[in-house]
Amino acid sequence: LIRDKLPLPPKPIVITFDDGNLDVYQNAYPVMKQYGFVGVFYIVSNRLVAQDFVNTVQLTEMMQDGWEIGSHSATHANLVEQHDLVKSEAFDSKKSLENELGIPINTFAYPFGRTDELVTDRVFRYGYLGAVGLGSSYTHSAQTVYYLSREEVRFEYTLEQFIALLPWQN
Question: Nearest-CA neighbor of 20 among 109, 130, 87, 151?
């Protein structure tokens, strides 16, 4: 919607998960499915064959239920501090996930939620349609599509702490 400059629905929330941890598949996915929710799961591509991380079969099941899969880099390197790794981390991870899953990978989650002008430019050039980081801005537009800010919700947050993060509560 943002890329097409269409208005967002009132009070929109996008639920995202980073890294590819197996517990997202085992715990969050079933609960979200029960309530008819879908999310975006950002995968570190070299973890697809690692213990305690999701595999292609599990991701395929999630995709069939409407989940979007994005890239969270190849190894979770800090791209702001290691510009020489941007191609292998952002471009190669995109291609690897596309080959493994048979779908286009359209969005990127910056490792550690951090980017700079070079990293953002490369993510754009590598064919991603958008990217997400960490921050507290709730205002997004076509100009911020390569840094959509997200609030981190930690497992120890109470319901009241979560509600306080929502912009319409402030």
Answer: 109
CB 139 within 8 A of CB 162: no
**Rounded to whole angstroms, how far apart are CA atoms 124 and 105?**
13
Helix (H) / strand (E) element for 109: namely: strand 107-109
Tokens 């079933």 locate to 30
Supply the pTM of this predicted model. 0.91
How many helices and strands (H and E) does the chain possess?
A: 7, 6
pLDDT digits (tens, 9 = 90+) for 84-112: 999 999 999 999 999 999 999 999 999 99
CA dihedral 69, 3, 5, 19 (to 10 degrees): 40
Q: Region 48-56: what's the mean pLDDT?
A: 95
